């Protein structure tokens, strides 16, 4: 399927739905691209779990500070007006409902808003959860940015997650390469189709009933 | 650029509704946001639940707000002091409700609200009348009381330095309850003695990160409760 | 009774039992005098509930800082090496068992270590507890410094407190004008008599059985 | 004058017994007290329970301590990373136990230990396998899980500036778990890049007050895990 949004376009589309002045936590992968697509006239303040509010872009290689990283353990910078704090304060921001938007990648997301993005549940896997379970329970709005299907073509938007949950009923909106999809009381519903993509194509790539956009 | 500055104390407290739960920073006179409290007196919201360690002194600030009949309930640890007359009189007359909370439990309940912790266990009050009716539980052979979080609709806070993003520092023991109250209120209103540009506060020295602050009022020469009382002042 | 210790001597005697380097919280009244009687070669670090570790003596009148007070709302100073912190952190120090010694005044203290020092329980009294209940539960050792009897001659060391408790079974040692008294599994026991005071005098002034000093 | 300075890292960790619960500050490489960890490798205490967000990288620091067979149990939120090989191999071989704790719950359990709170409720893990077997409870119609405090016998911490009383500041995101671990351990051992006189740290800027610190080791030029790994180093 050549139609649809690129990774960059998915991030840009997600950025459109983040209000000006939001406190934002970005997961690893496509969500990180959002910083490059902040809409004109808006400003987001980035939080990273390991104790920084006001995170800036990566530094030049020769300006790295080994003690300034993000939760993904990548080197970052601090913008004017930044603040450092310890881990209990950092997760107070998360669990206390102070962060406005969290944008995550995922393995699966279900029609009821369940998300599974931390473990395949394989018996030989080393389980590792990090801050994902805190984020999905604490942040006001959970966005997911993800390819609509896996590399092998399996749907990532499903009726029920087969992988262990990160949190139940927490996702509000999903941005894929094919569409913007809301989690509604009636299940998935298309909000917007990517250019050149039909509702039928989305329906076929989705592992659960999905409603067309309301006219 | 994000700028949380609010033109005046009056505008900053204009939307405090009747019946609101309001946290007020300060421990005794130290850290009490007098200008914001007086703005709330002018604004006139009634039936307020007030959260502060004390109940004010003299006839200014917190005591004046109570004297003005705007407060129906007080949540505090120490409602009397040598100079507090307003609250004791109303309390004895049955005109104001009191929820007495030990100081450390008060602080921890406020912090819990800010941190998304609905309840926790503490040894404080075990075996006393203040634990009566409360759920207790043993951990490792010791008894603890369960205490719920304590949230507010508004927090009125005084700080020393603020930037437009809401990053704050405080002055000495005027810090007290203020940083945790900033975390626990839906809308946190701060009066600052000094307003600086974003980046002027070293990120290592920020006490309250801006995420916990909604409105900033520039009050470069704040009055101090102790000074007002020594001068025999009252408000309004 | 003219024999026995003065207020200052009681404070000095209590100070003798505080180890070098202790973190100490002092209640209002006689306990405050302890700062004047720190034994030669020892150093105590004073904590005050309203967010200061490293509290120093009162300032000269013309050097007062209105934003630097102690929990008793008196103006104080901060010594080199002091630290300011907020109330939740301050009571973490208390409740978390980080303070070594708390010295309190009291209305009553019972033979099982119960202390009552916050309310007479009178129906018209305005109840006010402050940080007392946190201190008695959290600090490692609770000392009491008090006159042995009330102004009207009633014992303050009693079999059972008649006033509402601040905390049950928390007091370890009591310093009065007549004696130093331990709370033991067998009840009160004299550790030391004030100069010119006999055990019988102490016994008579005490509202509970009291054991003499072990030889 | 009170002086918590300890002559060497070796002396500072000399009394860590076999079977001790040891918290180690740092988030990945940032804030990891390499010199103290290596001293603990030299010291040789066994059967340790280690608490850290991760499990170390490469063959230095935390990973080297685990590789040396001194750790029987790991409590962490994220035990694997691109450069962690030691823990995964031992875990798959059944030679090391893992208690997986979400990052925010790990932080809050540590903070609770320092604050004298034996248990608290959190929404994190509700509805997931990590809540299985745990007590849940509703507050205001939402379900929460009860979590216990997490204490340690020792904490090994890296800071930026310390004074002889144990007051500490940290460097940027190297702060992470360190301040709360200082609170939660019976004996807190800190390596500092800079040791200054009492009074040289502004009391407003102290991050960890000295009451939470027991021993300070002067390590003016600490090695950094990332640098050691890039250089292909291993320890011992």
Quick summary:
The complex is a heterotetramer, with two copies of chain A (215 residues) and two copies of chain B (236 residues). Chain A is an alpha/beta fold and 215 residues long.
User: How many E strands of chain B?
Assistant: 12
Shape of chain A: globular
Specify the oligomeric state. heterotetramer
CATH topology type of chain A: Glutaconate Coenzyme A-transferase
Percent of residues in helices of chain A: 10-25%
| CATH 4th-level superfamily of chain B | Glutaconate Coenzyme A-transferase
Residue share in β-strands of chain B:
25-35%
Largest interface: A-D, 42 and 50 residues
Name of the CATH first level of chain B: Alpha Beta
Polypeptide structure, described:
The complex is a heterotetramer, with two copies of chain A (215 residues) and two copies of chain B (236 residues). In chain A, 15% of the residues lie in helices and 27% in strands. With 215 residues, chain A is α/β, with parallel strands linked by helices. A ten-stranded mixed beta sheet of chain A has the order 4-3-2-1-5-8-10-11-12-13. A three-stranded mixed beta sheet of chain A has the order 7-6-9, with no helix packed on it. In chain A, helix 2 (87-95) crosses helix 3. The two termini of chain A are 26 Å apart. The relative contact order of chain A is 0.17. Chain B is of the alpha/beta class and 236 residues long. Chain B has a single domain (19-117, 149-228), classed as Glutaconate Coenzyme A-transferase, CATH 3.40.1080.10. Chain B is 23% helix and 27% strand. Chain B has seven helices and twelve strands. Chain B has helices at residues 9-12, 34-43, 61-67, 86-92, 103-115, 178-184, 225-230, and strands spanning 5-6, 21-24, 48-51, 71-76, 97-100, 119-122, 136-139, 142-148, 152-162, 168-169, 185-195, 215-218. The longest helix of chain B has 13 residues, at 103-115. The mean pLDDT of chain B is 96. Chains in contact: A-B, A-D, B-C, B-D, C-D. Chains C and D meet through strand 3, strand 4 and helix 2 of C and helix 5 of D.
């Amino acid at each position: 399927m050549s139609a649809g949004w690129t990774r960059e376009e998915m991030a840009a589309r997600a950025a459109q739905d983040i209000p000006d002045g939001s406190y934002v936590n970005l997961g690893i992968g496509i969500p990180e691209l959002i910083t490059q697509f902040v809409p004109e006239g808006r400003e987001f303040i980035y939080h990273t779990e390991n104790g920084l509010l006001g995170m800036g872009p990566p530094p030049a290689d020769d300006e790295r500070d080994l003690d300034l990283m993000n939760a993904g353990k990548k080197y970052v910078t601090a913008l004017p007006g930044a603040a450092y704090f310890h881990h209990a304060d950092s997760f107070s921001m998360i669990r206390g409902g102070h962060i406005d938007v969290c944008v995550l990648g995922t393995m699966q997301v279900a029609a009821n808003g369940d998300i599974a993005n931390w473990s395949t549940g394989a018996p030989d896997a080393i389980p590792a959860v990090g801050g994902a379970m805190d984020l999905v329970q604490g942040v006001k709005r959970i966005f997911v940015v993800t390819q609509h299907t896996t590399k092998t073509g399996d749907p990532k938007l499903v009726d029920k997650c087969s992988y262990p949950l990160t949190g139940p009923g927490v996702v509000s909106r999903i941005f894929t390469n094919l569409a913007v999809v809301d989690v509604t009381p009636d299940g998935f519903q298309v909000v917007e189709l990517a250019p050149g993509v039909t509702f039928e194509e989305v329906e076929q790539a989705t592992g659960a009933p999905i409603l067309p956009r309301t006219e | 650029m994000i700028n949380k500055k609010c033109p005046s104390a009056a505008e900053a407290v204009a939307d405090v509704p009747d019946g609101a739960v309001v946290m007020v920073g300060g421990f005794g006179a130290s850290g009490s946001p007098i200008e914001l409290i007086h703005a709330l007196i002018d604004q006139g919201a009634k039936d307020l639940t007030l959260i502060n360690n004390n109940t004010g002194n003299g006839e200014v600030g917190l005591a004046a707000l109570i004297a003005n009949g705007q407060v129906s309930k007080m949540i505090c640890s120490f409602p009397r002091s040598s100079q507090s007359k307003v609250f004791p009189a109303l309390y004895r007359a049955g005109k104001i409700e009191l929820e007495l909370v030990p100081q450390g439990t008060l602080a921890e309940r406020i912090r819990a609200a800010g941190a998304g912790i609905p309840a926790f266990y503490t040894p404080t009050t075990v075996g006393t009348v203040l634990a009566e009716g409360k759920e207790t539980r043993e951990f490792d052979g010791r008894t603890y009381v369960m205490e719920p979080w304590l949230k507010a609709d508004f927090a009125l806070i005084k700080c020393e330095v603020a930037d437009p993003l809401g990053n704050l520092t405080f002055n000495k023991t005027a810090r007290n309850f203020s940083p945790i109250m900033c975390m626990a209120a839906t809308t946190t209103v701060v009066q600052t003695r000094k307003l600086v540009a974003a980046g002027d506060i070293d990120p290592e020295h920020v006490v309250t990160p801006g995420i916990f602050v909604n409105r900033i009022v520039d009050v470069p020469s704040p009055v101090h409760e102790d000074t007002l009382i020594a001068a025999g002042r009252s408000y309004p």
